[in-house]
Structures are given as structure tokens and as C-alpha cells.
Write a structure and sequence with these properties.
Layout lengths: L4 E6 L9 H13 L4 E5 L8 H12 L3 E4 L10 H13 L4 E3 L6 E4 L2 E5 L20 H4 L8 H29 L2 E5 L10 E2 L2 E2 L5 H4 L2 H12 L5 E6 L6 E6 L2 E5 L11 E5 L1
Parallel strand pairs: 1-2, 2-3, 3-4, 6-7, 7-10, 10-12
Antiparallel strand pairs: 1-13, 5-6, 8-9, 11-12
Length: 269
Amino acid sequence: MRAMKRLAWATDIHLNFLRAEGVDAFCDALAREAPDAIVLTGDLAEAPDLVAHLETMERRLARPIYFVLGNHDFYRGSIRGVRERVAALCEGSRHLRWMNREGVVELTPETGLVGHDGWADGRNGDYFGSPLLFTDWVVIEELGGLDRDARLAKLGALGDEAAAHFERVLPGACACFRRVVLLTHVPPFAEACLYKGRITADTWLPHLSCRAVGEVLLRVMAERPERQLMVLAGHTHQPADVDVLPNLRVRVGAAEYGAPRLGEVIVVP
């Protein structure tokens, strides 16, 4: 019989909005699906309580948890500091796997898993024409106090970091597996950033998508038409399911503050 895995996918769960009993109820809902593993695509909590929530999920679910971080996970902290704490946590953990550090994971003999947090890199849409102000620029240490040009350079560097990661790991994953699942927080294509079923406005796109990652995925998959890539993302809170190429599908999960949900149980062969 062909090996298959059941992945319980959730995104933008924002556990910091919940009391302890709410976190327990969410974990119970995931466990009832009896998945082989959990996949989480960012915005799990905020910097002060992120590690505690990850520890709770590991204790209650007792199975592999593959995750990336989202922008909210760095709120009231620093990117560097949160990454150091999460790396240290995963170093001594049996089940927690932060995909920035995992390379390529075998889910089944036919399906591999890769991932990186990603970041909205300001390159899609109209960055300089956007009047929007984001909490990120106040409560994340590395983004505070920057003017527009300096902020765009920092956002671009974060997007480029994610793109470089996928440039390294995705070709190898495709060499080993017919199918690859990719976890990231920020949708890599404007087409997957929807509002009421349509691509969101140009003033929002710079803050909702990562063009640097999208360009890498397009290039790698266009060169490998015999391989299949499914991207799982979050960030926008708006559901999307887009075929960017015949072999490149992007799915964005729905979310609501204070009401974390199981997005779907995905069965991978």
C-alpha cells in the first residue's frame, strides 16, 4: 500500500488572543482529526508568549509540528531575538520543527516538505503610493524608527533572505520528490492576495506579498514541469487557491483574530 500522510494545516492562529482554555480547545480540535503531523503557516502568537504557546502545543499534540513564523510572532520583540529563542527551543524538542532550519523533510517517499517564514517585501503594488501604516513598524525592533526608503530596504532584505533559502532547498527537494509542499507565511504572488474574491488593491499588495520568493518559485518550477509544488501560506486572513503554473498551486488559509481554526486536513501521497 502506498504511504500517505495526513497533515492538519492551520494559519494565523494568534493564540495570544486566547485564554488557556481556548488554546486547549484549539489543540483538542486538531488532535481529534488524528493527523500524522501539524503544519502551521505563521502568526502563532507574539514574541513574549510565542515559546510558551509552542511548548503547550507540543505537549498537548505529541506529534511533529512543522511551522514557520509570521510578522506577528515578532511583535513586542526583535526578529533576531525571537529567532534565537525559537531555534534554541527546537534544538531540544522532540516534535517542534521550525522550517527555516530544517532544509528538506521527507513526508512520504513521494512528497517532501520545505519552508521559510518569508516577509512582505514591498515590491508588488505601489509601496510609495500607499498611505497605510502598520503596527509592524512600531513594535518590531528592526523596523522601528525607519524612514520609507530605509524600511523598504529592510523589507526587501527580509524577502531576499527567504528567496535565497528556497533557491537553496527547492531544487534539491524536486530532485528527490515528485511532489513538494512549501510552507511560508506571506503569499509569494499578488494573485493569491485576495479581498472579497479579487486581487487586493495596489496600496495593500506591498505589505501582503513577497515578490522575491515568487520569482524563485516560478523559475524553479518552470524548469521542472514533471514536479508538483503546493504552497501553503497565510497572512492575509482571506482564503485563496490559485494555480500560478500547471505545476505550482498556491493556497492561502482563512483566519480570524480570537477564533483559531483548523484550515484543512491535507492528505499527501
